[in-house]
What we know:
Layout: E1 4-8, E2 20-27, H1 30-42, E3 47-50, E4 56-58, E5 62-69, E6 74-79, E7 83-89, H2 94-103, H3 122-125, E8 128-129, E9 132-133, E10 138-145, E11 151-155, H4 156-159, H5 167-170, E12 176-186, H6 198-201, H7 209-223, E13 231-235, E14 241-243, H8 244-253, E15 260-261, E16 267-269, H9 272-278, E17 285-286, E18 289-291, E19 298-301, H10 307-325, E20 334-336
Parallel strand pairs: 2-5, 3-5, 4-20
Antiparallel strand pairs: 1-2, 6-7, 7-12, 8-9, 10-11, 10-12, 13-19, 14-16, 15-16, 17-18, 18-19
Amino acid sequence: MKINENVSLKDLNTFGVEAKTKYYSEISNLLDIEALFEWKSKNNLPALLLGGGSNLLFKNDFDGMIAKVCLMGKDIAKEDDEAVYVSAAAGENWHDFVRWTIDQGFAGLENLSLIPGSVGAAPIQNIGAYGVELSNTLHSLQAVNLETADILEFDKELCQFGYRESFFKSQALDKLLITSVTFRLPKKPEWHINYAGLREALAGEVLTADVISQAVISERQRKLPNPSQIGNAGSFFKNPVMKVTDFETLKSDHEGLPGFPQTHNDEVKTSAGWLIDQCGWKGHRVGDAGVSDKHALVLVNHGNATGSELWQVAEDIIASVEGKFGVTLEPEPRVIK
């Protein structure tokens, strides 16, 4: 494992924020994982695992080791009468992997097209879009414990998935290095298109995984800014989930408040973007830090914003929404302070 010092992170995070890490390495094979384990055992410094850098905001330089996971490979692991099981190494680009499964004739991941990031980072956040979450199709994953060097296998239950949550985020952040993920893709797919925008885009279409994927891609490109053109990390805030009674009370005071019933009948998810938009934040800008004029849920770096400046905008939005609606927003990205 080659270790570099004082490395710029500007090109390694989709916000394009300038920050430096004291040490930087890339994990491409088992020997690199062993070397990282040895480094951690000998150095009293934090180690942060980096995927695609699409779910991070660096407020300051990082005084430790950032290890970018570059493990590559994907294949069809097995199949049975009902499903095909496909596996991908943690460093694979998520969208490229989704499109690969579709090209192989498999369905199940199409709604998650064009989400930035890597395969290994996807379970940590339990990524989701257009009515589908990664947990819907995850079968198992393999990880290495960086404190003991043990190789561990997790089924879906052990992952403890929740809304943008998992065991790896809540209890094992930077302690486990996810090395590969296996998905169960049904041979008889169930299409999920009952989502505003997607439903209209697919009206009259013969549904296939590719058709749905292309519609999702078009919708995301229409609504969300491209990180290669303007720095951002996609949706910056989680959609708030609240009890039905609290939602109805809030809706009685704010006509038009959207609500989406959850699996638990006593909960409703509302739109963070709608709340932020109602507070007048869309298109807001202070220096180079601001909010997208395409979607109020997306913070953007117009060029040279610092992580602290972007976080200040986020804190101002949180305070604004709480003041108007009494709802406390939570950030989706990990904020490295």
